[in-house]
Amino acid sequence: MAFTNKKAAEASLEDNYAAQGDSPQISTKNVIAKYSSSVLGAAIGTSLFIRIGNVLAFGGPASLLIAYIMYSSVLALISNCLAEMTVAYPVSGGFIRQAGHWVDDALGFMAGWNYFLYEALLIPVEVNAICLVLSFWTEHSKDSGPTAAICIACTVVFVLLNTVGVKIFGEAEFWLSSGKVILILSLLMFTFITMVGGNPTGDAYGFRYWNDPGAFAAYLSTGSIGRFEGFLACLWNASFAVVGPEYISIVAAEVYRPRRSLKSAFKTVYARFGLFFIGTALSVGIVIPYNNSTLQAIVAGELSSSSAAATPWVIAMENLGIRIFPHIVNL
């Protein structure tokens, strides 16, 4: 049967996938908007808020920015390839099933277990980050009792969200992702406003810290070798923090009319790379210098966990005399 209408052809393909058992499992109401928002925020993790300050101390603002640009560019190319396969073959399991379909079942088996271990190891990372954030308000959160309670509570929440119906999971993912997107945008606005003088001190610091102490920091060694090692440390962090296209393919079979919805969702990947990851890397290098005493003490382990809960933006806010916003950021 020949199709003269592109939409009719796409609908026929989607109906064919539904007949194979990969029909959508979530509500179709506002699915594109909610799906795109979830995709934007799903990959924004604690590494982008907390760990990035340590990496700034390792390599400096220029190394951090270059590393994030390089890794985002590579992942954007991967995203293009993944988008073509996912739109053509929108099945449950995403890139894991695609690896088995397009290459070999052994590759799909390996990709599945590799991704499971990757996601499973993220759970203790997230729990540890929650403990750090809570210690911003009270040092008792680092005691054995509260720490155990936090771990149990987080584990219960993770299990419940992954065992309830997919509609509830989708709603939770949407609202949690929206919160992270709003936070990132707020921090970028904070950076711009304060760097042009909109702060209690009236100091328009601009790109001052790129000149003093400098754009590159030496890590482990001294001289050019040390600066290159600092760049490698930033690139290592970028490889952990900059993720996302795989999330789109994994839930491809859960959306209505995937060949239409997925095209819109994959386009948001470029906004995430450019605004959230690269923009955040630039922002961190603007608000504080890599040799900031608090940041260096945190990296060296000389400060308590309550100080480690402070992100680079919180350190900058406290240095500028801003008292309320740090509590909002840590929420």
UniProtKB/TrEMBL annotation:
Cell compartments where the protein resides: Membrane
Signal peptide from the UniProt entry: none
Annotated Pfam families: AA_permease (PF00324)
Keyword annotations: Membrane, Transmembrane, Transmembrane helix
Domain Amino acid permease/ SLC12A: 40-331
Gene Ontology MF annotations: amino acid transmembrane transporter activity
Listed transmembrane segments: 55-78, 115-137, 149-169, 181-198, 269-290
One Gene Ontology cellular component: membrane
Domain of life of the native organism: Eukaryota
Primary location: membrane
UniProt xrefs under InterPro entries: AA-permease/SLC12A_dom, APC_YAT
Official protein name in the record: Amino acid permease/ SLC12A domain-containing protein
Naturally occurring in which organism (per UniProt): Hortaea werneckii
